[in-house]
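Lecture 7 notes: from sequence to structure.
We start with the chain below.
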Amino acid sequence: MTQNTLETQNKRLDAPPDNPSEVAPNELGRQAERLLREEPPTAKKNGEQSLGPNATLECTNCSPESIGAQRVLPTESSAENPAVKSAKGDKGIAARFQLGVQLGADSISKENPLPAGGTVRPSDRLQTGDRKAVGDALKDGSDRPKELTKAGVIADYSSTLRQAGMSEAEATRISENTYKRLSKEASENHLKGSPEQQMQRANDAYKEVLKGVDGKLEDGQIDHLTKGDRRNLVKDAASRLENPDKFVNQGAHMTCALESLKKQHLEAGDPALVAERLASVVNKGYATIKEDGPNGKERKVHVRSDSFMPDAESKQEFNAAYHGDAGKRGMAGHVWDALSGQTAADLKAEREGKPTSKNGIDKAEYFYMAAHASDVGGRSSQTSTGEGLFRNGPNGQKSLIADNPNVGLWDVAHLNKAMGGKDGAVFASSTLLSNGDKAPSGYPSDLKITAFTGTADLHKKLTQFQERTGQSGQIGVNAPFLPGGGENGHGMHAMNIRANKDGTFKLDNNWGSKQDLSSVGADAVDKATNADRWSSGGRGVPNDGTIFGPGSGRNPNETEADFSKRKDEESKRKDERKVKEEEEKEKEKEREKENRRKQEELKAKAERDLAEAKRLEKEIADLRKTEKETAQRISEMVTKRKDARQAEQLAMGLGHTSKWNHNS
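Predicted structure tokens for the same chain:
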């Protein structure tokens, strides 16, 4: 088919023919009659349009592929429309054409009749280069964009989850629950796109994860994940999208700031983006993150692929009780922590004016390991959870900086902003902030934390944030002063918080559903957030620069026995560190002793060399003196000999003169 023919065909699909007599009444009559037997659409939903007189296109959730290709024609112009004239009796006047399924009859000519039993959609445009005739394209449907329907996306989503190892019943339940939850967010205008679009994007990402790569990631790193790891990642990710409250957990890791941020992203906004980032980083070795808004800054973040290798929690076959109720971290949480932890490391480097991972993880000043820190030099006495922030040193040297992501309150706010968090997503009591809501030097000037002066102020601002975004707030608390904590010592913790309509708060701890509290009074929240109410125990009160992680107090997720065990383990690690430090001191002493010995040897050698140099210098001076004296003697001898010769010549001259005088 030539380009001119294609352009003519497309023009015909977009506009009625100039000559109505070219219309094929029989074909159009059968088409209109078939339409009359169908119930006309009556509701506007997900981009569908109820068509009446003078219908126009109104499409709020159309896919990008269909925009510009759809056209709705008036349906009651029976006097001019041959298709309506040919329908049964007066029913032709009531013929309606369904948006995205039928095309107005006055756009079909004899030159392009409908195939038997076929229909033409407005999106059935032929592009230059298509080899199929119109009839062929319509028969096999290959040129038609896939229409997203509730039933279709649930079926596709469920099929992928079954490929990941879920039972049919479990896959169907999770798919239906996910659609229901996303539909609620969409109805409240808290979702980007439609529920169908969100589920399709997440599903496409899951398929990419399951497909995997051939041994190496796109950036050249080794792929350490097995097929089983990838199936666990998909099951964990889908469960988190279905129920963020239950499945977004940090487990036995110091990643509260990373997981509470993920929960916000999954609750509302663009949850499918989480799945897309996970798929990108495990297949490519990097993901592109972007701040919220059309002008948000974009960053490319590479992650060490050995950081994805499962640990004691994520290697377990995904289980709703273990990774949900018990609060353990699954594979999707593990990979998210690796990505967001590296993002935090890059932001630290960025603030310091040092290289980030954008050109490769080996180029970054800092790198984060979500697990297996011991494989890159972090000893067990340095990291109890297998995670750690490292510095890339010269000649391949790596040094452990912290056994956690090493983020304080403003670091959390910067990370939230960088990964697309909503404006004002991080909350903190004004008693915790050193300089109000102004960011410290080195942070973006527009970086803000939502400061509150008390729980009434918190409830008001949190309610406004929820109504605007559909998300919970991310808040900094002193964990031992949460309900159920020991109210002793300190330990900064990031968690999710919602304002209930009755004035109470919902606290989501990311430590498992048993630690989540659905209705917490104002006083209990004030105690956990108000620094003026924290007893220091002589250890100092946390502030906005304190690193998030367990401290000297007992947390709500710890029994007295657990707390004692943790303190004993910390004491053992402290003793181990002390032993290591003593060993290092002894080694340092030995090194110093050896250095002193070598220095003394070098000094003695230098002294010997100096003495030898002086001897040689004296010898050279003596030789020069001897040479000078010899030269002087030779000179004197030459002078004497010269004088003698001259005397002899003079004597000879005198003798001749005397003889001449005698003869005369």
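Points to note: Residues 1-139 have pLDDT under 50 and may be disordered. The radius of gyration is 42 Å.
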